[in-house]
TrEMBL record:
<keyword id="KW-0611">Plant defense</keyword>
<protein>
    <recommendedName>
        <fullName>Disease resistance protein At1g50180</fullName>
    </recommendedName>
</protein>
<dbReference type="Pfam" id="PF18052">
    <property type="entry name" value="Rx_N"/>
</dbReference>
<dbReference type="InterPro" id="IPR041118">
    <property type="entry name" value="Rx_N"/>
</dbReference>
<dbReference type="InterPro" id="IPR002182">
    <property type="entry name" value="NB-ARC"/>
</dbReference>
<dbReference type="InterPro" id="IPR058922">
    <property type="entry name" value="WHD_DRP"/>
</dbReference>
<dbReference type="InterPro" id="IPR036388">
    <property type="entry name" value="WH-like_DNA-bd_sf"/>
</dbReference>
<feature type="domain" description="Disease resistance R13L4/SHOC-2-like LRR">
    <location>
        <begin position="545"/>
        <end position="862"/>
    </location>
</feature>
<dbReference type="InterPro" id="IPR042197">
    <property type="entry name" value="Apaf_helical"/>
</dbReference>
<dbReference type="InterPro" id="IPR055414">
    <property type="entry name" value="LRR_R13L4/SHOC2-like"/>
</dbReference>
<keyword id="KW-0547">Nucleotide-binding</keyword>
<keyword id="KW-0677">Repeat</keyword>
<feature type="domain" description="NB-ARC">
    <location>
        <begin position="148"/>
        <end position="319"/>
    </location>
</feature>
<feature type="domain" description="Disease resistance protein winged helix">
    <location>
        <begin position="413"/>
        <end position="483"/>
    </location>
</feature>
<dbReference type="InterPro" id="IPR038005">
    <property type="entry name" value="RX-like_CC"/>
</dbReference>
<dbReference type="GO" id="GO:0098542">
    <property type="term" value="P:defense response to other organism"/>
</dbReference>
<dbReference type="Pfam" id="PF00931">
    <property type="entry name" value="NB-ARC"/>
</dbReference>
Length: 902
C-alpha cells in the first residue's frame, strides 16, 4: 500500500504543477525536485512503510497548503508581504520534507534494504501463508452443506458435455471453491469417465516447474525410479511429456487457486486445450483469469450460503444435535453468531470448530461477545486457514498498487450499504486516487478499476442499470472488516459512530485495534445514530489533513445546525470530497464553505436547505475585491467536478447563483432557472450531465443553445423541465441537432406540439423520458424507430385514443413505463414488436379496457406491473381471466389496485 500512497501523491503533485502553475510561481522548481525525490522512494521495500507514507502525505500537505494560502490572497500583488512570506514558508517546508526523504533513504541503505520489483513484497509475505493454504486432493470433507446440486451439475458438465474443455469455479476467498472441486474430483462417475487424474495447487506465487512435475507424476503413477527421472527432466521435456499424455489419454487435471493471467501463460504450453479429450477444472477468485484461460470456458460462480444452510453447517461443525434437540437459548445464540459469518463457509467452519470446544452456555455467551476477534484469528483452525482475515487478505495483497486505495475507500460506507457506483467513482476521481491514463478519461479508468474489483470477487454487485452497467455495489461483511482493518493499518481512513451521548465509537469490528493520531487522519466517515445532536466529536475537530469527509445518517436523526459543522469549513481546508447527502437543517448553506478551495466533490442531494447564502464582503478570504463582483460563495470551489444542488432552495437578496467559474465541472443537477444565472452555463464546456428545471419558456434555453452550442456538444445526459409555453417541433430539432454523437439520455418535461421525425433524435439515444408532453398524436411509431432505445418512460405524454407498436418497432427496448394516458382506449402490438422487452408498467390509463393481444408474442417479458387501473382491467388478468393467456408466460405479475396488490 505504501507504493499506492506514493503513486497518488506523485500524481497529485504532478497535476498541481500543471494546473496550479500560476500560484506555485517561484517555488515550482522546488516542487519538481520534491516530486523527483519521491519517485526515488518508490523502489524501496515496505519495511519503512509508516515513514514513507507520512513523507508522501507531508509532501501533498505542503503543496496544497501553499496553494490555499495563495488563493486566499488572490487579487493582491505577488510581491505583498503575505505572499512573500507564504513562498518562504513553503520553500522551508519543502526542504524539511526533502531532508526527511534523504534521512530515510540513508537509513534504508544502512540496513541493507534493496530496491524490489512490483509484487516481490507479496512473495515474501506469503511464503509462510502459502504452506498453510496448500490444498491436497485426498482431504475430502464429510460435513459439506449446500454443494449437492452444484456438485451434480459440474459432474454432468465434465462427463457429458464435450463442448467445455475448461470449467472454472469462481468466487471470493472462503466460499468453498476448493471443497467443491474436491467433491467433484472424487465422484464415482468422474472416476469412471477419465483415465488419469491430477491435482495441482498453483497459488499466488506460481512455480510452473513444480506444477508440471506434480501433474505428470499424478497422471503417470510412476515407480520410484521413474519419479526420479521425471524430477530430472528439463522444462521443455516436462512440458512435452505432459502435453503428450493429455493428448493420448482422457485426463482430468484440477488447477486449484489460479490467480493471474501471467501464471496461466507459464502453464499454458503443457495443456492441449481444444485439441484433446482431457479436461481442466480450475478454481480462481478472478473471473477475468477464468475467461483468459479459455474464452469458451463455463464459469460456475459459488454463492454465499443461505441463513438456513449456514445454521445447518454450524450444527455439524459444532457437533450440535439436529432437529429440535438443542435448547432454544443456545439456538438463539448460535443463530446470532452465524449471522456474523455472512454465509461464508470458512467463517462458519472456524466458528463451529471453536464452539465444539465450549460446553456451557456461559462459554457460548463469551464467544458471542468476542465473535469478530475469534473469526479474525481463526482460533481452532490456525493450521487449516490461518484465520478468516488471512483467507480474504490474500485477495487484497494480490491487488496491483493502483487498486488498493480504491478498495480501501469502500471502507467509508456502512455495513450492508448499497453503494451507488457513480458516487463512488466520482469520489475516487475527486480524491486523486484515480486519474486519466493514456487517453482514457478518469471516469472510464474508475469504471474499469471497479469492474476489476468485481471480477476479483472482492466487491459484490448490487443492482445493474437498464444497459447492464453496475448501478450499486456492496462489500460482504467480512470483506468490509478486512477493508477497515487494512485502512487502519495504512492510516488511510477512520470510520466512527456518533451516538446520542456523542461518544465516538470505532466503526470497525475491532479486528485490528490500531490507534490513529487524530490530527493526521486523511479520510473520515461519520455515522450519526438516532438521537445524535452534534456532527463531529471534539477529537476530530482539529483534523486539518482531511481529504474526504462523508456523513451517513440513521433514519431518525434530528435537525442539525450548521454551527456544528464549523470545523469542516474552518479547519478542514484541504478537503477534496464532502458528502452531505440527506443533511437535515432549516438553515442556509454557510458562506464559510468558500474556504474549501480544493473541494472537487460536494453532494447536497436530498438535503432540505431553505437558503443558499449570498456572499457579503465581511468574508475574510475576499479582502480587496470590489462589491458586486462575486454574488455568492460556491463559485470559489473551482475544482468541483460534480455538484448536486438541493431540489429546492432560495436565495438571499436579488442576485442569482453564479455558475461560470466551474471549468472542471462534469455533472450539475437541480439547476433552478429562477435562481441561477443560466447564461453562465455556456462557459461550462466540460459538462457532460446537466439537469435544469423551472424554466418559463424555451426562449430561456436559447441563451445557452445558440447554434452551434458548445455545451450541447459536450453533454451526454440532459434533464429539462419547461413550464408554461409549448415547445415547438422545430426547437426540438435544433436541440437534437447540436447534441454530441454519444448523447444517450434525455428527460424532457414540457408540453410538446409534435415530435420531430425519428432521424432528428440523437442517434445513440438509450434512455428517454417524456413527461407532461400532452401529445395528441401517437408517439409510438416515431419512438419505435429509435435503434438503440432501451428505456422509455412516458408519464402524462399522450392525449390520443390509440397507440400502436408497429412490426419490428422498438428493437432493443427493455423497459417501458406508461402512465396517465387519460383518453387511451386501445393499444395494439404487432408481430415482432419489442422483441427484447423485459419489464412493462402501466399506470392510471383508466379508459384502457384490456391489454393488447400482441403482448402474448413478447416472449422475453419477465415482469408486468399494473397500477391503479379499473377493477375490470385487473380481473381480466387474473388466473382464469379473459386476458390471462396474454401474460401467462410472464414470471412476475403485480396487479395493484389503489390500496392493495393482488
Amino acid at each position: 500500500m505504501a507504493e499506492a500512497i506514493l503513486f497518488c501523491a506523485l500524481k497529485r503533485i504532478g497535476d498541481l504543477l500543471i494546473q496550479q502553475a500560476e500560484f506555485l510561481g517561484k517555488v515550482g522548481d522546488d516542487v519538481q525536485l520534491l516530486q523527483t525525490e519521491l519517485r526515488r522512494m518508490q523502489c524501496f521495500l515496505k519495511d519503512a512503510i509508516a515513514e514513507i507514507r507520512d513523507v508522501a502525505y507531508d509532501a501533498e500537505d505542503v503543496v496544497e497548503s501553499y496553494i490555499l494560502k495563495v488563493v486566499s490572497r488572490r487579487g493582491r500583488s505577488i510581491h505583498t508581504i503575505g505572499n512573500m512570506l507564504a513562498t518562504w514558508e513553503v520553500g522551508s517546508e519543502i526542504e524539511d520534507v526533502k531532508a526527511k526523504i534523504s534521512n530515510l533513504a540513508r537509513s534504508l541503505e544502512t540496513y541493507g534494504i534493496r530496491p524490489i520489483r512490483e509484487g516481490d513484497d507479496s512473495r515474501f509475505a506469503y511464503e509462510g501463508r502459502q504452506q498453510l493454504r496448500r490444498t491436497y486432493s485426498h482431504l475430502v470433507e464429510d460435513d459439506v452443506v449446500g454443494l449437492e446440486e452444484k456438485t451434480e451439475e459440474l459432474v454432468t458438465l465434465l462427463v457429458k458435455e464435450e463442448r467445455y474443455q475448461v470449467i472454472s469455479i469462481c468466487g471470493m476467498g472462503g466460499l468453498g471453491k476448493t471443497t467443491l472441486a474436491r467433491k467433484v474430483y472424487h465422484q464415482s462417475e468422474v472416476r469412471r469417465h477419465f483415465d488419469s487424474f491430477a491435482w495441482a495447487y498453483v497459488s499466488q506465487q506460481c512455480q510452473a516447474r513444480d506444477v508440471f512435475q506434480g501433474v505428470l507424476i499424478n497422471l503417470t503413477s510412476p515407480t520410484k525410479e521413474e519419479k526420479e527421472r521425471i524430477l530430472q527432466l528439463r522444462d521443455e521435456e516436462l512440458v512435452k511429456q505432459l502435453y503428450q499424455i493429455q493428448w493420448e489419454k482422457k485426463c482430468l487435471v484440477i488447477l486449484d487457486d489460479l490467480w493471474t493471467m501471467q501464471a496461466w501463460n507459464s502453464l499454458r504450453p503443457a495443456f492441449p486445450i481444444g485439441k484433446s479429450r482431457s479436461k481442466i477444472l480450475l478454481t480462481t477468485r478472478n473471473k477475468d483469469v477464468a475467461t483468459y484461460v479459455d474464452p469458451k470456458a463455463l464459469i460456475h460462480e459459488v454463492q454465499c450460503l443461505t441463513e438456513e444452510k449456514s445454521w445447518e453447517l454450524l450444527q455439524k461443525k459444532a457437533m450440535l444435535p439436529g432437529g429440535h434437540g438443542i435448547d432454544f437459548t443456545w439456538e438463539r445464540l448460535g443463530m446470532e453468531m452465524v449471522r456474523h459469518c455472512g454465509g461464508l463457509p470458512v467463517a462458519i467452519i472456524v466458528l463451529g470448530g471453536l464452539l465444539a470446544t465450549k460446553h456451557t452456555l456461559k462459554d457460548w455467551e463469551m464467544v458471542y461477545r468476542n465473535i469478530n476477534s475469534y473469526l479474525r484469528r481463526g482460533k481452532g483452525h490456525e493450521q487449516e486457514f490461518g484465520g478468516v482475515s488471512e483467507v480474504l487478505a490474500s485477495s487484497y495483497y494480490d491487488l496491483p498498487y493502483q487498486l488498493k486505495p480504491c478498495f480501501l475507500y469502500l471502507g467509508h460506507f456502512p455495513e450492508d450499504f448499497e453503494i451507488p457506483t457513480k458516487k463512488l467513482m466520482r469520489m475516487w476521481v475527486a480524491e486523486g486516487i484515480v486519474s486519466s491514463v493514456q487517453g482514457e478519461t478518469a471516469e472510464d479508468v474508475a469504471e474499469r478499476y471497479l469492474d476489476e474489483l468485481i471480477e476479483r470477487c472482492m466487491v459484490q454487485v448490487g443492482r445493474r442499470n437498464f444497459i447492464g452497467r453496475v448501478k450499486t455495489c456492496r462489500l460482504h461483511d467480512l470483506m468490509r472488516d478486512l477493508c477497515l482493518s487494512k485502512a487502519k493499518e495504512e492510516n488511510f481512513l477512520q470510520a466512527t459512530h456518533l451516538r446520542n451521548k456523542n461518544d465516538p465509537v470505532a466503526a470497525s469490528s475491532s479486528m485490528v485495534p490500531i490507534v490513529t493520531p487524530m490530527a493526521k487522519i486523511r479520510r473520515l466517515a461519520i455515522y450519526l445514530d438516532e438521537g445524535a445532536n452534534r456532527c463531529i466529536s471534539s477529537e476530530y475537530e482539529k483534523s486539518s489533513h482531511l481529504r474526504s469527509l462523508l456523513f451517513f445518517y440513521a433514519k431518525e436523526v434530528g435537525m442539525i445546525n450548521w454551527e456544528q459543522l464549523k470545523p469542516v469549513f474552518n479547519n478542514f481546508k484541504l478537503l477534496r470530497v464532502l458528502d452531505l447527502e440527506g443533511f437535515k437543517t432549516t438553515e442556509h448553506l454557510p458562506k464559510a464553505i468558500g474556504k474549501l478551495v480544493h473541494l472537487r466533490y460536494l453532494n447536497l442531494r436530498n438535503s432540505n436547505l431553505v437558503c443558499l447564502h449570498t456572499l457579503d464582503l465581511s468574508f475574510d478570504l475576499l479582502d480587496g475585491l470590489q462589491r458586486g463582483e462575486i454574488p455568492n460563495v460556491i463559485w470559489k470551489m473551482e475544482q468541483l467536478s460534480h455538484l448536486y444542488l438541493p431540489k429546492s432552495f432560495t436565495i438571499n437578496g436579488a442576485d442569482k447563483l453564479r455558475l461560470d467559474s466551474w471549468n472542471n465541472l462534469k455533472t450539475l443537477r437541480n439547476v433552478d432557472a429562477r435562481k441561477c444565472c443560466i447564461k453562465d452555463l455556456v462557459k461550462l464546456t466540460n459538462l457532460s450531465k446537466l439537469g435544469m428545471h423551472s424554466m418559463k419558456s424555451y426562449e430561456e434555453l436559447k441563451v445557452i443553445l445558440k447554434h452551434p452550442s458548445p455545451i450541447l456538444n459536450s453533454l451526454r445526459l440532459l434533464f429539462l423541465q419547461i413550464w408554461g409555453e409549448t415547445v415547438e417541433e422545430k426547437d426540438l430539432r435544433q436541440l437534437f441537432s447540436d447534441c454530441h454523437h454519444d448523447f444517450y439520455r434525455l428527460s424532457l418535461g414540457t408540453v410538446l406540439s409534435k415530435l420531430p421525425e425519428y432521424n432528428s433524435f440523437p442517434p445513440n439515444l438509450i434512455k428517454l423520458t417524456l413527461w407532461g408532453s400532452r401529445l395528441l398524436e401517437d408517439p409510438m411509431p416515431t419512438l419505435g424507430k429509435l435503434p438503440h432505445l432501451q428505456f422509455l418512460r412516458l408519464p402524462n405524454t399522450c392525449f390520443g385514443k390509440e397507440i400502436v407498436c408497429l412490426t419490428e418497432s422498438f428493437p432493443r427496448l427493455k423497459y417501458l413505463f406508461i402512465s396517465n394516458f387519460p383518453k387511451l382506449e386501445e393499444w395494439r402490438i404487432y408481430d415482432r414488436a419489442m422483441p427484447s422487452l423485459l419489464e412493462l408498467q402501466i399506470r392510471r390509463c383508466e379508459q384502457l379496457k384490456k391489454l393488447p393481444d400482441g403482448l402474448r408474442l413478447v416472449t422475453t417479458l419477465r415482469e408486468l406491473e399494473i397500477i391503479e387501473m379499473p377493477n375490470g382491467f385487473l380481473n381480466r388478468l387474473k388466473v382464469g381471466g379473459e386476458d390471462f393467456y396474454k401474460v401467462q408466460q410472464v414470471h412476475s405479475i403485480k396487479l395493484w389496485a389503489r390500496s392493495s396488490c393482488f
